[in-house]
Amino acid sequence: MPSSRPRLKLRHLLLAVNLMVLWLPLLGLEALRLYDSALVRQTESELIAQAAFVAASYRATLARRAPQAAADPQYGAPLAAPWREPSDGETRWRPRPARLDLAEDTIQPPPPDTLAPSQLPDPYAQAVGQELQALLHDAQVITLAGIAVTDAQGTVVATTGPSLGRSLMAFAEVRRALTGEPVSLLRQRIPDSAPPAIDSISRGTPLRVFVAAPILHEQRIVAAVLLWRTPIALSQVLYGKRDHLLLALALVLGTVALMSALTSFTVVKPLQALVRQAQRATAGEKGAVTPLARPITREMADLSQAVATMARHLEQRADYIRTFAAQVSHEFKTPLAAIRGTVELLRDHLDTMTLEERERFLAHLDQDAARLDRLVRRLLELARADVMQASTTDRAEVAAVVRRLATRYQDAGFQVTVVEPLPSANVAMAEDVLESMLSNLLDNARQHGGDAVTVAVTCPTPAALLIEVSDNGPGISAANAARVFEPFFTTARAQGGTGLGLAVVKSLVNAHRGVIDLGESATGTRIQIRLPLGAAMPR
Predict the structure, then answer these.
(1) Does 42 or 258 have the greater pLDDT score?
(2) What is the CATH number of the domain that holds 117?
């Protein structure tokens, strides 16, 4: 009984799968924060470039405002070996790529408070800072970056913020920069106001990028520059591109819908056609299941062909069972009716019958019972033959089976001639199966009036074996030749024939991938069986 629960349609499932495939890259971007990392690196790269220009401006201003300091080889702190600039024999290019990554770098705590300086600022650096102060403010209007320049002791000499004259030695990045190491890191951002609107130039990102770099003069550290900026938020980027994104989303959704419709047309429509054919076949329409005229895909064509073949075989099997049941009923009806009639006669007239009449009626009962017994045994043989599965390991030596059967029938008074020499060949079946096939053929020849049978075995091809059983009986008429392998067809019913012998042989031959035919013969009947050869018997 089919379930009453609602089921998802295949076209809806295809649409959901396509949408899920579309959504996976977006989930990956969010999980790995790839785009956010790209925005952070973009901000870092911009701050590195600004730091380089600030350092260059500081050196130029130092040479102009304090030439005595610029000319003093002892001015500033020495630069450690890992951070020394290249000599004349080396390349002068020292690019500093952006390296920050949200997936790998630790986000540091918010920036610490500035400190009171432990000593007075460097007068030379202070003079340079006074000239750079206005420059930094003008640059911040465009770059939005906070900038602070410190002397070699970490005291701010120029800044865009309120920390002028304060010490930045509490900043780890500044301390490292004053040793000559360029530093980039991420710090948490604690906003001091409500979150801005999505299209605001202010950022809502909960972190800031800090870049610190030493300012070098003649391989000595004379100052340091610290820059910070909040990277642009992904939401702001998406909002800025909202028109393009909406258009792209519409195109993608349209493509997904088109792909789903195409898949539905190539898969769902042929399946619906197959379902309709199956429903017609279930309703009893014969020949309803046929290969689809337009299966579209190769797999659907194969499925349609397989279903049509299966339906045809089921119809043939149903017809066979229907015909077989009618034939069995007919074959059993005649002896059963005779038995019932005989029993009624014996019950009504047993006392008035002579001994000879009673014996005659009892003989009829015995004959009818024997016929029913033969029918039952043959039907069992036919049923076993119809469901038999050929084994890949069984082997039968044909010559030995033929000679053994010939001897048995000769001892019973039936003339069987074997054409020698018999080939030394094996067939892929059990010996008892081969013996059953040949016994049925010999019994069939004896029942149909033949008193001599000839058995010939040859190998017409390297892979096939031909067994021919010929008798000297009256033969088979042209009208009956097409029906000799049908169940219950016999011309020797009076001699006890059931019409199942050749049907059993045919089923056994078919189960072992062989072929059975009625061969041409000038006199009598000749049955030909072709079987595939098996491997050699183990010794």
Answers:
(1) 42
(2) 3.30.450.20
